[in-house]
What we know:
Blueprint (H helix, E strand, L loop, with lengths): L1 E7 L1 H9 L4 E4 L7 E7 L4 E14 L1 H5 L2 H4 L14 E17 L9 E5 L2 E4 L2 E4 L2 E5 L4
Parallel strand pairs: 1-3
Antiparallel strand pairs: 1-6, 2-5, 3-4, 4-5, 7-8, 8-9
Amino acid sequence: MVIDCLILIKPWLEKILSGEKDMELRGSCTHKRGVIGLIESGSRKIKGFATVSDCLELDKETFDGSVERHQIQGDVWDKLPYKRKFGWILKNPVRLEKPINYMHPWGAVIWVKVDLPVEVKNGKMYIEGREIGERVEG
């Protein structure tokens, strides 16, 4: 099954997989929903999975009130590299005990599509017997 995988730098990836962070800040909205892979930038390895449940456009007040969710500390609103700011909401992180290697396509910087050995049983998705989330159509 082909899964969309999000590329993240290690500190943010670790916070997502540990459950400390459930909002990934980006400069555009995502319409993706459901299970995604989580890739550590530069590693060529899928380190885990999470479920994208929503995408919210953020204003400064909402950003400042969501520090515990996005984990970006300090007065940085005007320093962020995005004209518009969006919080991608990530739920149910699953860290893989053994990361999955993949072939990284040239030029990919945000998303990579990876064909993975996913099993679907009763609407739930599994890799190597471990549940990674619910299947979402579309």
